[in-house]
Amino acid sequence: MKNNSKWNFDTNAIRAGEHRDPATGAHNTPIYQTATFSFETSEELTDAFVNFGNPDCPNLYTREGNPTIDVLQEKMAILQGTESSLAMASGMATVAASIRLCAKAGDHVIVTDKIFVVSRSFFLDECPAMGIEVSFVDMLDLDKVRDAIQPNTKALFAETITNPQMCVVDLTGLKKIASDNHLSFIVDNTYLGPYLLQPIEFGADLILDSATKYLSGHGDAVGGVLCGSQKLMSEARATMSSFGQCISPFNAWLILRGIRTLPLRMRQHSKNALALAKMLKNHDKVDWVRYAGTPESNQTELIEKQFPQGCGGMLSFNIKGEPGNLHRFMNALEMVDIATSLGDVYTLAAARVDYGLIRVSVGCEDEKDILADFSQALETIEV
Ligand SMILES: Cc1ncc(COP(=O)(O)O)c(C=O)c1O
User: Fold this and answer.
1) Ligand 1 centroid – CA 96 distance (Å)
2) For the chain, what is the domain count?
3) Angle between the 249-259 and 67-80 helix axes, to the nearest 10 degrees?
4) Residue 370 lies in a domain
5) What is the pLDDT of residues 172-202, one digit of tens each?
6) From the CB of 160, is ligand 1 less than 6 Å away?
7) Tens-place pLDDT, residues 2-38
8) In which domain, by residue range, is 332 found?
9) Does residue 270 share a domain with residue 152?
10) If residue 30 lies in a helix (H) or strand (E), which one and from where to where?
11) Atom 9 of ligand 1 has which residue's CA nearest to it?
12) Gap from CA of 339 to ligand 1 centroid (Å)
């Protein structure tokens, strides 16, 4: 695991970036809930304007930077093993920022065809509006990725585990194609987070996480974090300010608090999801189950190499019989919540009738209670 601190991951999740508050001595990082920062003299404010953008520029205005947000960014850069990071208003802000960094009007990007639905809308609608051409490609087939490269191609955009089909892409294979063709390699790591996968180890140039999910972990904040080189993050910071995509200090603080328990939660998510996947696989009313920890096929070696610490909490499955069984099953759940989103300590499930599946974000409750709820709901279904 890549580490640019003296501590191990579990310690970094708690301590990296954190320090005694210099203003008050507060032990826990305070929420600096302020829009602007004031100065003793008019000359100091003028100096701040002149030095704006330099790393040693004092805090000026929260859209540009804030001490609570700084701590989150320092921690995330250490956890992802990158030089720098930028916290933003949502995961979607980081998707947009990653493309803004790599492509301009007249360029072309290659995107996984199995992708989160709002990211799909961004690539389908917003990129062409900015003059950026997009090809959606099955990234499970590396030959198709190579064939899609054009003279104006600038980037490959992949999800580590695709939402909601749960396909696992070969990061080493994609990086080789990116390097051979001088393309930026962008990885959306939302489904795993940095404890289970550091895409920098596989050569990613830009890594993004919807912090709304596993990083925050408690379903109480919306945010995103983009990680990469110092140079790319300074460029992204300037763009973020112009587009006004900054995170609020309170959301940054909630995400910071969530990250301190990220390793504990990811171990529990992975353990519970593995148990549920195994139970569903053996259930006679279940048609199929997709979970990276119980691979069907030739992907076992790839998955062991990419996710040695566990495969996280996301799985999907289908129920035998008529399509209406998806809603019948969902309505029979007693404990598990019917909700979109993922990475929460609560187990959440959503029927995706358009994909013919139920997507489950397995939470951190007791494994026995999760399995019991799925079993009793399945019992109510006739196939
Ligand atoms: C894989 C993936 N990427 C990005 C996002 C966008 O994140 P946010 O909802 O924080 O904008 C999501 C949201 O579900 C997601 O699942």
Assistant:
1) 12
2) 2
3) 40
4) yes
5) 999 999 999 999 999 999 999 999 999 999 9
6) no
7) 666 789 999 999 999 999 999 999 999 999 999 999 9
8) 262-379
9) no
10) none
11) 91
12) 14
